[in-house]
Amino acid sequence: MQVVRTMPEMFPKPCVATIGFFDGVHCGHRFLIKQVCEAATERGYASTVVTFPTHPRKVMQADFCPRLLTTYEEKIDLLGETGLDYCMILDFTLEVATLSAREFMAFLQKHYNIQALVVGYDHRFGHNRSEGFADYVNYGKELGMEVLLAQAYLDKSIAVSSSGIRNLLLSGDVSEAAIRLGYDYFLDGTVITGYRVGRTIGFPTANLRVDNADKLLPSDGVYAVRVTVGGKVYSGMLDIGTRPTFDNGGKHSIEVHILHFHADIYGEVIRLSFVRYIRPDIKFASVDELIAQLHKDAKTVEGIL
To answer: What is the pLDDT of residue 169?
Structure first.
C-alpha cells in the first residue's frame, strides 16, 4: 500500500474509495475495505481509503480527548495489511468541516480522482451530516461519480464498531474485543524506571510509558499478555492500576512481569498484546499475601499462553 500524505492537484489514477477515520481497523472496517478492493478490481481502478491523521472531533473541539484504539502510525500499518493500493491522508480542517456532502464529493473527485465511492451502511458525511445515501447517489449522478452502498459486517448479529470495542476494553473484556478487532489489542511504549519493588519480591517488572496520550488504556486489572521485545515474543502478566498494596497514592502505572526473562530493557520500546483479563487490581492485607497471589497469577498466565 502506498501512502499519499500530501493532497495532489489531481491523482493520476482513477480510484474506488471509501472514507473514514478507521480507528482500530477492526473487522467491520476490513469487511468494508474488502468491498472497495473487489469493486476496484471489477472496474480496473485503484483501491483507496481516504482517512484523517487527527480525529475530526479533536479539530472541532480543542478540549476533546479521544481514546484511540490505534495511533496514526498503528492505523497506517494495519491498513497496509488489507490489500489496498493507496491510503490518502487528508488533513481534516475547519474548512473541510464546512463542506456540504456534495462539495466534499466534488473535492474528492477533483483531487483524488475518485470515480466510485463506497459508503458504509451507517456512514454520513458533509456539514451537519444531514444527508443520507439517496442524496449521495443523486450528487454522484450530477458529478459523474458512482456511489455504492456497502454491506454491513455483523458478528453474532452485532454490528462491530470502534465505540463498542472501546467499551469492551474499558470493562476489561479484552478477549471479546480481540474477536471484533481481528487481532489482540496492543499498547506500544517505552520501558522506564519504576518503583523497583517488584525485584525485591521476586517479580521484577518493566514499567511502560505509553507515548501517545490519546491511546486507550483497558480497565485496571491483571492481564495475560504477550510481550514483544526486540522482535521476540514472550509471555507476561500485566498490571494496570495504582499498586494499592504499596499505597501508591492513586498514581497509575503499567507494569509487566515478563516470564523467564532477565535482560535489561530500560529505554527500549516494547509491545503488550492483551490476551485475557485475569483479575481486578486489589489491595492485599500484606505483601506476603500479594506474593502468594502473584505466584498463582503466573501459573494462570502460563496456562493461558
So the answer is: 98
